[in-house]
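agent> fetching stored inputs for the magnesium ion docking request
agent> found them:
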Amino acid sequence: MRVAIASCLRIPEPDLDEPLLLEALAGAGIDARVLAWDDDAAPFAEHDLVVLRSTWNYYQRVDDFVAWVARTGQATRVLNPPEIVAWNAKKTYLSELPERGIDIVPTEFVLQHAARRPVADIVGERGWDDIVIKPVVSAGSFRTERFSRETLPAAQAFLDALLAERDAMVQRWMPSVDTYGERSLVWVDGVVTHAIRKTPRFAGGNERVSGEVAIAEDERAFAERALLPFAAELLYARVDMVRDAGGTLRIMELELIEPSLFFLQSKPALARFVSALARRAR
Ligand SMILES: Nc1ncnc2c1ncn2[C@@H]1O[C@H](COP(=O)(O)OP(=O)(O)O)[C@@H](O)[C@H]1O
Ligand SMILES: [Mg+2]
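agent> prediction call returned; pasting tokens
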């Protein structure tokens, strides 16, 4: 059995999961190697299974990436599955979650080719004070900035610059990222394995995460409910959530493509990942 771990040619930051994963796969007798999705010569099709991992530059060429995943999925097995990757690559997927009773961070999409409302109108109508503006296709806090009612002209200028290149979104800034924290619940092969807490990160900042944190029962249930429609198809997932002022859990991101899985914080999660992967590659 040969497994390809998909990364990219110029990784924006080190993948802390990768050495642990490679070591654990080797320990399980699985022949794995890291290949770059954006290397045209990389022989992904020669492998029995391709596992998407640190393909962290994909947001710069999202259409190419989604097409590459689909193509590779015709030649061999790709996990997570190509159709789910295509759906998850644009944060507009968030707008489908409330229909399923899954609350999201309050969001207004501002799309390049649709009628646009000024930020001041959005903020006024929604009654928001602080906001975050970010791209619809993004990773690693790329071009993600916070503004307030006092900095609306700067917010509008930032949004206009973003829209010249890509679709954008305006969200209510969630104050609990500074207190309770954004929680990432990691899910492997049907089970929530562990959780970490993230420190707020805006453009240019580094990711800082905690050790393993306790998972509240409502957090676990929320993550499971959010993943339910895909659960049978997924190998891994991460559900990033925050609490609003009333304590309601809201999705920040459903990460089904290339989330860090924080294996450093959980050996059992790594073991579960490796055995689930081995089962699927057979
Ligand atoms: N609405 C928001 N309220 C508070 N912080 C936010 C909000 N949106 C984004 N952030 C901060 O920016 C980071 C990156 O945003 P996120 O939506 O997770 O995109 P990505 O991880 O794909 O770059 C979050 O982890 C959080 O620290
Ligand atoms: Mg995120």
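agent> quick read of the result: The chain has three domains: 2-81, 91-103+176-263, 107-173.
agent> awaiting further instructions
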